[in-house]
Amino acid sequence: MTLREWLAWGETELRAGPHPAKARMDAELLLLHHIGKSRAWLITHRDESYAGCSSIGFAELIKRRTTGEPVQYITGTCEFYGLQFHVAPHVLIPRPETEHLVEKALELARELPSPRILDVGTGSGAIAVAIKHHLSNAEVTACDISPEALAIASSNAAQNHCPVRLVESNLLSAFDTEQFDLIVSNPPYVPSSDRASLDVEVRDYEPALALFADEDGLAIFRRLILQSFAHLASSGYLLLEIGHGQHQAIESLLLSTGFNAIEFTPDLQGIPRVASARKP
Ligand SMILES: C[S@@+](CC[C@H](N)C(=O)[O-])C[C@H]1O[C@@H](n2cnc3c(N)ncnc32)[C@H](O)[C@@H]1O
User: Fold this and answer.
1) Ligand 1 site: residues with CB under 6 angstroms?
2) Which of 50, 64, 210, 258 has the highest Cβ tally under 10 A?
3) What is the pTM (predicted TM-score) of this model?
């Protein structure tokens, strides 16, 4: 069979799975991963039969995807902010909307000569590594409660040549009296009660620890906002990725904690996605 025929076969199989709209793109990503070639290479070689494309290996990848397993866990890679990250089931797959948080962090931190930045709940390390990549003068620290996530973040920091200090911590509890100029976080904020309604690829494959929070998804925010206020230097900023419909509750929490200059940055759908707030 030619590569074009393998691709068509994979696409047909995936059309019968839980994500038919992505069948073509997923089949191509899995084929490229299987043969270890680029998309440009495939375009010029798709009518050749390819000895390396054993039916068993490619069929196994397609079978995994038909159960709903995310393509990024099957290939073990994900692109975020133009960088490549290793991902595995202990970490959330970085989302495009989180790039708005990085954008805002870079905008604020560029004003400072040597900003001290903390990423809380770093997962794969995507936010911390992307910030360090663009701001070599920043001292970037990243923490997570999950040692498995920290091991993946460590390998991503090394692979992208971005030195980031990694700390195992339940929110900011490991930081004693340390102060930061900027604290960023994409914490778990999906209401635990929404679990059943989530897409299979999120609900059955991504780590619950990275997704869910009690109290309508606000439980972690409540602790994080209070702790961040204590660990921010004067005029420091807190940046939070938030869920759909949470901005009013987050604004109240930030105001009652003493933050000012509260702003929300919308995502590409116009949904308030990143909260930023300043410690006076
Ligand atoms: C939504 S994921 C974000 C991962 C990554 N920052 C990103 O944006 O792709 C939330 C992360 O918070 C971590 N986490 C959950 N509870 C935590 C806690 N109490 N303290 C520190 N990290 C926590 C999870 O392990 C997970 O890696």
Assistant:
1) 91-92, 94, 98, 121-124, 126-127, 144-146, 149, 170-171, 186-188, 209-210
2) 210
3) 0.95
